[in-house]
Amino acid sequence: MLNGILWDQRISQDNKRRIYNAVDGCEVWQLKKRTQDMLRVTEMDFWKRSAGISRRDQVCNERVRHIMEVENDIMFDVMTEQLIWYSHVSRMTEKRLPKKMLDWIPPGRRRRERPVRGWRQGLLNEIRECQLPGGLWEDRVLWRLGVAECQRAL
């Protein structure tokens, strides 16, 4: 669907970057390793097509990122959005529906196909890897600074 737009040289790189940034809702994605790999491959395919680089050109990914002026990997962006969303919902009162949904544990056993690691567990692993203190999410400014520091460290 976007193939014609991505290869069109008349469309500026800034507009192509805006199309990329229009992906919404990543703060609630539950990502397995395979899904993360697929997202990274799709992201690089997007940037290469936007830059007009084909596979025959054999340009490395870092060079493509430099050409397209892309700083972060898509997984860094997803992780940042998830951490910001988590702090936002955690600051809500107990009566708000998003807060209730975040704290809700479904009754009964998990089905066989269900992933062992849920969204919250993955997020808590990210918080642990970034070494963010436990109650830091209560202060919005400090939390965002901590997330930004974590992103720079990775």
UniProtKB/TrEMBL annotation:
It comes from the Eukaryota. This is Endonuclease-reverse transcriptase.
